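Re: [help] complex structure
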Amino acid sequence: MGKEEHPNISVDCVIFGFDFEKLNVILIERKLIEPDTGKRLINDYTLPGAHIFKDEPLKKAAQRILYDLTGLHDIYLEQFYTVGDPARLKNPVDQFWLECIGKDPAEHVVSVCYFSLLNCNQVTIQHKERNPRWYPLKDLPVLAFDHAHILDKAMTALRRKLQYEPIGFEMLPDKFTLSQLQKLYEVVFDTTIDKRNFRKKIARLKYLVQLDEKQQGVSHKPARYYIFSNEEYKKTRNNILNFTI
Amino acid sequence: MGKEEHPNISVDCVIFGFDFEKLNVILIERKLIEPDTGKRLINDYTLPGAHIFKDEPLKKAAQRILYDLTGLHDIYLEQFYTVGDPARLKNPVDQFWLECIGKDPAEHVVSVCYFSLLNCNQVTIQHKERNPRWYPLKDLPVLAFDHAHILDKAMTALRRKLQYEPIGFEMLPDKFTLSQLQKLYEVVFDTTIDKRNFRKKIARLKYLVQLDEKQQGVSHKPARYYIFSNEEYKKTRNNILNFTI
DNA sequence: CCAAAAGTGTTCAACTTACACCCATGT
DNA sequence: ACATGGGTGTAAGTTGAACACTTTTGG
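Output below.
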């Protein structure tokens, strides 16, 4: 009961962050250096994750991981996948690592995976140990365990979700410009979007509310700010039945 | 190792079956009758599920459950959700039941949930114990544990999936008529579809191949059979970027 | 005045929706 | 002959895609 870790159940978090230019993800160093020779035995990266405590709900565990990294509660969080192949931690490097950090390498660990959405500029990552920081998705280092696979699934899940729910706002400040929103979609879907068509689409959405406020101190025509109105969204959300077959 | 059950990790299966009229799901009786009085202490229904064996992959466990119920391998199977709140099995009836079947009611059981798709008429459910059978989704009995919640999530996941991938075929025979396919969509989305518009849409899809073969022995104009061509689908699948924002 | 990003309309093609009748078969 | 479900086309409205120039600000 209480703070004892469950040996078989962990939670991994794919924390996406948008910095107005590209999409990033928080990774943590996994470094093991032989003290005598200075030789790097292990030098790669993992997603933030933790074993759940016994009697801790999965979502609470994910929120705990997020809080420890960002100091924030109430971050957008969504479960998207659970990995549970007994072979997933069985390669020699991972086995060696698990021994080094005092886990039983023989355990079958099922990992429940969540993704979260943030705006990079509104977060300062808390350093406790092992140096967590943002890495651009377009330029990732080598990932440990099956974390490349998990990240791939997370990306697919994010795109899917973004296709039917307006959660892009979670990666922007409360007030944002349409160009910022457009850039976000372009980055997530790795594409370019026509500015006029994009804005025409926005104009149809009642839950995107234009403010009187404008950008200040930019050396070009200042953009108008918009906010996302959740009330309007709830009213006008379209339960589309647009099946592809 | 081997056939020992993992006390904390289970797999539940939501097995959807289409019978050309409605959507059904396989449920299993949970019955407990007091021997003396004949009083029904428990009388409700559960989704098929099982604890995984130690060192068994999650998907293998799901396939095992499906095989035990249907005698079939290679059924469409998709993971959609994992429940892991320690409170999920803590109501008195469920606790009592767990004790009766020899499980430790205090364990925190994380359940990884899969849904599968079948055509009811092509399956005979294997009776081992506790009488599993099809129940119409529109007329469900009382469900045990948090299985009503899981079923709800499954239904949402099925609809979403059906909106961007043509997996409806998994609930039809290899050869099917367009009316059968239309009925399937109508039933899953609880709506009605215009016949001519539906068929116009189908005509655009190259992976729906019309056969020369027709229905036989029906007391009306016999319908042409169609098959789903996976090769064509892979060629023409559209990676649409149709975001709602 | 220059650089930088904001903002704005039109046209054409594709798709969606609504709608009614004849056809082939078994009984 | 009749009951049953199969099969077909058209017109109007809506949406998606392509495309270029003017505006506002800071430096």
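The interface with chain A takes residues 6, 8-9, 52, 54-59, 79, 81-87, 108, 110, 112, 160, 162-166, 168, 181, 185, 189, 191, 201-202, 205, 208, 238, 240-245 of chain B (CB under 8 Å).
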